[in-house]
Amino acid sequence: MAHDQISIPLLLFLICTLSAATVNHATLTGKFGENGAMKRKLLDNGLGQTPQMGWNSYNHFPCKLSEELIHQIADAMVSTGLSALGYEYINLDDCWAELNRDSKGNLVPKASIFPSGMKALANYVHSKGLKIGIYADAGTLTCSKTMPGSLNYEEQDANTFASWGIDYLKYDNCHNNGLSPQERYSNMSKALLNTGRPIFYSLCEWGQDNPATWASSIGNSWRTTGDIKDTWESMTSRADLNDVWASYAGPGGWNDPDMLEVGNGGMSTEEYRSHFSIWALAKAPLLLGCDIRSMDNETFELLSNKEVIEVNQDKLGAQGKKVKKTGDLEVWSGPLSDNRVAVVLWNRESSEATIIADWSDLGLNSSAVVDARDLWTHSTIYSIRDQLKATVEAHACKMYVLTPH
Ligand code: GLA
């Protein structure tokens, strides 16, 4: 057949393909409706294609913000090499504003701690190649009660944030007058979109109204739990509460079991290794919550594990989940791109134990032969059949990526 001729079968194939594309588009519009249109705009901005990575002030510095601190954190993010690994957002939490708005109703940065203002702060963070996030509340006051909420000021505040060059908003849920979260959180979503600036939108509704079921159409992540504390009990319970919603996460919108406590001193190194591994596997936001200016080597080693971060940032974006539980011995697993499988063998008992994951637990064919990369020892076990088995210390975990032959 000459190149400029088109055969009848090829023509038919093209017609079918084009009409299928039209049907798909119609189905999408029908399924997601008006909210879908908003989500597509957020996605068009390219935000949240993988879980967000960065730092937030709250876990280590609740209400102890300052311009100097944020400068130093941004400096440390770059000088430690963490920014090169993907940690990009420097996020202020509660307590950055004056209690009263100005005469025009604008939010005002607290002069005693941010004397140069927010635009200057954003410029500084941007000059480091990083992005800056801010915090507001979908009620009348923030949780600390030290600054005003954004209820009924959504457009004005979104415009203020955009004018300062803000890249990320965490939107909290205190003092909300019992109004519907869907409405309050949608109003800010629309206001952010209307600014025309791509602003990552993180809903902090604490999982009260099952946001996984509605928030993916308006935001890039949503909290599924109340606040984490720097303890083993708090961390494990956040992991379990978040796990229930695994099927709702994906590129553009992520379940958020709250920020990392790694490096804050309340857990052992093995407990923090479990914390970081499970957050990575569950496609949770990796928002550092320690003082990265002075973290010790062990903390840095955990937070900078490139292979674990790659699981979190895998382009397939499938949240790994708990697939087997025998007492407190657990297997967590999820698919990765290129037919690979991520696995965490997690010993939640208080003494050493052997944990086994059978291929059927991991969704692998019974005849599969895999190479298992151990992401914490950085070594590979070749050609394994039937099951993955390891002895794991108390409160510790082993994390693998399995590549079928
Ligand atoms: C709530 C949020 C926390 C933090 C504090 C700040 O508790 O859930 O993550 O932002 O408010 O006051």
Automatic annotation (TrEMBL):
It comes from Vitis rotundifolia. One of its GO terms (biological process) is carbohydrate metabolic process. The keyword Signal applies. Belongs to the glycosyl hydrolase 27 family. It catalyses: Hydrolysis of terminal, non-reducing alpha-D-galactose residues in alpha-D-galactosides, including galactose oligosaccharides, galactomannans and galactolipids. Residues 326-402 form the Alpha galactosidase C-terminal domain. The keyword Signal applies. One of its GO terms (cellular component) is plant-type cell wall. Residues 1-21 form the signal peptide. It comes from the Eukaryota. Its EC number is 3.2.1.22. This is Alpha-galactosidase. Keywords: Disulfide bond, Glycosidase, Hydrolase, Signal. InterPro entries: Aldolase_TIM, GH, Glyco_hydro_27, Glyco_hydro_27/36_CS, Glyco_hydro_b, Melibiase_C. GO terms for molecular function: alpha-galactosidase activity.
